[in-house]
Specification:
Structural class: mainly alpha
Strand content: under 5%
Helix content: over 70%
Length: about 500
């Protein structure tokens, strides 16, 4: 797939229309085919343009369109992102130009202003660039106090290095986790975290901003997802988050990280089954999404609504959950990939409410391979999809399909369950298989004893909320009770 195809995917519907206007304004000739190529790329039919104009002409046209796309996207980002950083960088560049022309007085004045603005937004990379210039010319009689320059330079360099060390620790942990998941390797994330914090010299006592807190929260979320034990996750950084809120770093530069930190904490509390705290943090997410003229509202709307709906559903408000998610399916500005999470949640809710045809109709829209879903959205999501697919086809009576589905599922993910410590999944599937081949056996004492002997039940606080939904299905069959009320009872009692 070409560069243009990848770039086009990053534009939403309104940006696509705006880009076509952007191209049209800049075309000096009426026979330019760049708009035609762009429209063909949107439909995945660029080969028709190539066949029409030939390979060489297509390569030239494609290169020009690529340049225009990059220009358009860069200008758009500069207009909406990093405006303060750009202004500071301009001051720094002008100061260096002035120094080159020996206009030291004005140069040092500009550097002082640039330092104050960079300090205000705690941009240590820019502060280091500013102080490298100040250090180089600190010998000049018009320069600020040299010792003060040296001290400040050392202080900002240490802050910058702390951020970089945390970046490296974060990246190393993410990479190790990714390798473990791909190769079905065992991994102790607590040990991994400790080793990488020691390796890169990261301590809990050092200062944080919303970006570094976001990285820490992501690692916590990964640890909970990998161990299937969100209950044990230590949100030690909540005090740092409180201290940052409303301070100098609670600004537009860090807003996206502020939103994402709050969202991840809300998600962790949801996975802990602490729905009241999760909803409180989601209220804060929504509040932050309103700031700076809703700058990041659209970018974070779908996942906010999805987590909100999950909380509603598990607090006996499934109607509100559906009202939050169903309108998303009619939105033309959202891609299929953006809708994967809300669609799967809707499938689960429909299934729990015994609206099987609705659930099945939506499930048929998941047409990619397991490998694609594992990479594009994550293995845990894909496993949830496969679990509900199996149970839904049992309810619909598609027994032959279920047999094939369970067999392929076990072959593909058996080693993953063993390495990830999900010891209940395979025994649970065997119980499910036993049930749908002989439905009457589920009400016998023999089957109840088999369930107790096969499943190693965790404490409710430690059990994964989504796995509990699938256990609840079997429990509802054994007790001849509605699935939704059985699920809520299992989770809350």
């Amino acid at each position: 797939m070409g560069v243009n195809s990848e770039l086009v995917k990053l534009l939403n519907a309104s940006e696509q229309r705006d880009f076509i206007r952007y191209l049209t304004k800049r075309n000096k000739r009426n026979d330019t085919r760049n708009t035609d190529l762009f429209k063909a790329l949107l439909k995945g039919k660029e080969s028709s343009i190539k066949a029409e104009i030939g390979q060489n002409a297509f390569n030239v046209l494609n290169k020009r369109l690529s340049d225009r796309l990059l220009d358009y996207m860069a200008v758009g980002m500069l207009e909406t992102h990093a405006t303060k950083e750009i202004d500071i960088l301009k001051q720094l560049l002008v100061a260096r130009k002035l120094i080159a022309h020996r206009q030291f007085k004005l140069a040092f004045r500009l550097l002082k202003k640039a330092e104050e603005r960079a300090e205000e937004i705690k941009d240590y990379a820019l502060l280091n660039d500013i102080y490298q210039t100040l250090v180089e010319y600190s010998y000049h009689h018009l320069a600020p106090d040299q010792e003060l320059i040296f001290r400040n330079h050392a202080k900002y360099r240490e802050e910058f290095l702390h951020q970089e060390r945390l970046n490296m620790a974060y990246a190393a942990v993410r990479k190790a986790f990714q390798n473990a998941q791909t190769e079905n390797l065992e991994i102790d994330l607590e040990v991994l975290l400790r080793e990488n914090y020691e390796r890169f010299g990261v301590s809990k006592e050092q200062g944080y901003n919303f970006q570094t807190l976001y990285q820490l929260t992501q690692i916590a979320d990964i640890a909970g997802s990998h161990s299937r034990d969100y209950h044990s996750i230590d949100l030690f950084f909540l005090d740092q988050l409180k201290s940052l809120k409303g301070g100098v770093l609670d600004n537009e530069k860090y807003l996206i990280y502020h939103i994402d930190v709050l969202y991840l904490i809300a998600n962790i509390y949801f996975r802990k089954k602490d729905f009241s705290r999760s909803l409180l943090f989601l209220e804060d997410v929504y509040e932050q999404m309103q700031r700076y003229e809703k700058r990041f509202y659209k970018e974070r709307e779908v996942r906010y609504l999805t987590l909100l709906a999950l909380n509603y559903n598990f607090t006996d408000h499934h109607v509100e959950a559906l009202q939050a998610l169903e309108p998303l399916l009619d939105r033309s500005d959202l891609s299929h990939k953006e809708l994967l999470n809300p669609m799967l949640v809707l499938v689960m809710i429909y299934f729990q409410q015994n609206e099987l045809e609705k659930a099945y109709k939506l499930l048929t829209k998941f047409q990619q391979s397991d490998g694609w879903y594992d990479k594009a959205i994550g293995r845990e999501w894909n496993l949830q999809k496969r679990y509900i697919e199996i149970l839904l086809h049992i309810e619909l009576g598609n027994i032959d399909y279920v047999d094939a589905c369970i067999n392929s599922f076990t072959r593909k993910y058996g080693n993953h369950f063993k390495s990830a410590g999900d010891t209940n999944v395979l025994p649970f599937l065997k119980l499910v298989k036993r049930y749908y081949h002989d439905p009457e056996i589920i009400h016998t004492e023999q089957f109840k004893e088999r369930v107790e002997g096969s499943i190693v039940w965790k404490d409710k606080a430690q059990e994964d909320i989504f796995l509990m939904c699938f256990y609840a299905w079997l429990k509802s069959k054994m007790e001849k009770r509605p699935l939704y009320s059985t699920t809520l009872e299992l989770i809350h009692n």
